[in-house]
Amino acid sequence: MSPISRRHVLAGAAAVPLTSLLAQNLTAPTAAANPPALVPEVAVPDVKLTWLEGRPGAAATSTWGTPWAKGTVPASQTFQLSAPDGSPVPLQSWPLAYWPDGTLKWSAHAVAPDTPADSYTLAAGTPAAPATAVTVTDRKNYVDVDTGVIKVRVRKSGRELIGQIWRGDVEIARKGVLVALRQDRIVEDEEKAPSRERFESDIRAVTVEQSGPVRAVVRIEGRHGRSWLPFTVRLYFYAGAESVRMAHTFVYDRDGSKDYIAGLGVRFKVPMRDAAYDRHVRFVGDGHGMLSEAVKGITGQRRDPGATVRAAQIAGTKLPDPATWDQRVTTRLQYIPEWGDYTLSQLSSEGFTVRKRTGKGYGWVAVDQGSRASGLGYVGGVSGGFAFGLRDFWQRHPTQLDIRGAASDEAEVTVWLWSPEAGVMDTRFYHDGMGQDTYPEQLEGLNITYEDYEPGFGTPYGIARTSEITLWALGATPPAARLGAMADQVRTPPQLINPVDHLVAAKVFGGLFSPVDRGHPVKAVIEDHLDFLFGFYQKQVEQRHWYGFWDYGDIMHTFDEDRLVWRYDVGGYAWDNSELSPDLWLWYAFLRSGRADIYRFAEAMTRHTGEVDVYHLGQWAGLGTRHGVQHWADSAKQQRISTAVYRRIYYFLTADERTGDLLTELVDSDRTFLVLDPIRKIRTEPYTPDPHALSIGLGTDWSGLAAAWLAEWERRGPKAEVARAKLVGTMETIGAMPNGFVTGSGLYDLDTGRFAPVTAKTVSVSHLSAMFGLVEVCAEVIDLIDMPAFEAAWLQYCRLFNGTRAEQTAECGAHFGNLILRQGHARLTAYAAVRLNRADLATRAWSEFYTGDGYGPALPWTSQHVTSTLNPTDAATWVSTNTTALYGLAAIQNLALVGDRITAP
Questions:
Q1: Is 359 a member of any domain?
Q2: pTM of the predicted model, to two decimals?
Q3: Nearest 5 degrees, angle CA 260-CA 393-CA 231?
Q4: ω into residue 398 within 30 of 0, thus cis?
Q5: Residues in Cβ contact with 691 at an 8 Å cutoff, skipping those fewer than 6 apart
Q6: Which among 240, 555, 593, 669 is most buried, taking Cβ atoms within 10 Å?
Q7: Contact (CB, 8 A) for 311 and 317
Q8: What is the extent of the structural domain holding 379?
Q9: What confidence tens digit (pLDDT) does each residue in 429-448 have?
Q10: Strands 559-560 and 565-566, bridge-based pairing
Q11: What would the pLDDT profile of 177-215 be if each residue is shown by its tens digit?
């Protein structure tokens, strides 16, 4: 089966409603929509997998995706996994995406080894079954999941997400609920503090998404209370595991001017069965530093119970019979305080505090302070206990871990995603508008602060955040070394990855990357420059403290050469919000290097930009917000920020369900153009959105839509055929335009999924059009769909953007005007050089890379240490994030496309 061509689309479909087109598709044989996978002519290659940060030091679970070259792996292929010694490893596999010919494009896999190996080999074959499979029992009122070590009851209604967690016959935790504190106003100056109201989870739907044998996933949806903060929680279970992973997503459904979040957390009750001196509290701080205490401490007392007794309590093991102690202690045990309440609060990235008290109504005693806690805590005793860990604990401050009532029959644990001690979450807009009431005034404001302000647009309504929590049901208080290993896995969850060579050979993501190669002296210099830029931003995150609940994962846009700080308070120069695709720079940098530090940086950015910078509810659902002082402040709500192209790489590498949700949300985002005109402030003629003639840009707009349609089609989602028809229809009608992409925009029909015919040669070119994923999307769809007219239109744009005015005029009837970002567009020239087999374009691509308006070889390529700022930092006044992202992508893609024709500067 060849790739889809124009014959798959009805002739003259511009006048045919999309629903009619789909009806004909659906009545055709199944093979027309989803052709059968061919039997590969070559054997399925073996893939050697390794751990991202090296072999974990304890039992580990991991889920990942592996790509396959077009036409090599049947859709029905099964897989096996083996350790280096050839022993089989239990494996669960499922498809993630397909090539147009029906063969497998991405497969997902899950493992849960007790003793992880250094590496594994994935191959075609029959998977080994786990010794004890994870099982799911779906009842009317609850779902029971059994890993073989623990059993978890998930409620289908009410407020308790998790009713009970058992280990064997012992109940370890119960009554797991979500907690949100609401405050109606923010305290100003010395006003009396307003009251707070507590809400708990209200479950609306429970779905079993996977049911084993290695991995099970249960999705829970609901709200906090009945009318606030919609949430989606996924619970992940693995065969043989004693833990459950929770992915908690909430959507902020207020406008930022009322109903403030004063606390947000997950709460459990923990039965306490052991004697007070056999109950333990643990917090892991920096590294493996640890608070290790008993509820009733018998060490350090005036009377000594005996060395054996003291050693047992320090180790967390059961104490000898009190009858064997020094009776001067035994007879006075009732006078030793029982410390039932503990709190670890991390209110900034630079410090946490720990305190304790005997109980409610009594004074707190300071325990200690530290810098950056791991986010792992434990409460329990020698007969069993409950451990809990929050990922990115200090990075996403303010966070907190609470233990209450550990001296009673039932302790209470709360993992606070937003600490109630931090004050309310202030999501108000940061200024009063400064008189920018009309479009002309707003454009003037844009000309000074680079902020595109508009009243009512700086709202957080509809933004989201996902947090990851791990819960352990343990048979006894774990030793310090094990708690340290658990803390490491909270900080950095184990992740299996594919080798770079396999990623390159599979030709996924447009084939626009190649392995790092320092074999040529000029290439080595470029690699040094790429390393410098990533290392510089890595340092900036730490030195400038780009941390916090809403901020972590983003980077700043532009540097202030005078203050020697980033322009965090200057309009559109502050948070970057994916401007000019730093997300893609980082992911392509990982794909070609396999570097763990780049992966984690890109992962944090994807988690942030996909959730915080994009609306998931309300009239702007499916749109993202342009760069600004607050992530939601700017009035430019556009496809270029929400685009699926920034999420797809992480999704396919990890099979992460939440990221899959983000892709699904965008499938119908073409309808957002009915709600908001992206260029409303600069139109010279009246414009009313018409569902049959929506003005959509062929650059930043279409690339976002096309990326979402591509993701839905290749994943065979519920709207896959609609998505395919829209993708193919818009490609055909772009290819039919006399000037193709140079036309700039088209009138799009929501019903037909096509652009209206264009007869005149129109020239409207923006330097931004191709810089938000259009390059990457076009490379992929051209590889997937046989459509010569579309490819010709894209190659024309690639050739001419950096071409001469004479060349532009000769082909298009007019030149493109004064353009910038020529270095970033060098990769378009390189792409055209390969597709057209033109050596002159390859030479031109390298010339544009060296002499374009970006980073040149003569720059210092160093930073300077600065001590005059609030904290000592490194500064490179010549660095800007726009240029960094484009330099990185141009370097990576030029090396991949025309690296064999590299020239010296």
A1: yes
A2: 0.95
A3: 45
A4: yes
A5: 674, 749, 750, 751
A6: 555
A7: no
A8: 274-397+469-491
A9: 999 999 999 999 999 999 99
A10: antiparallel
A11: 999 999 998 988 877 778 899 999 999 999 999 999 999
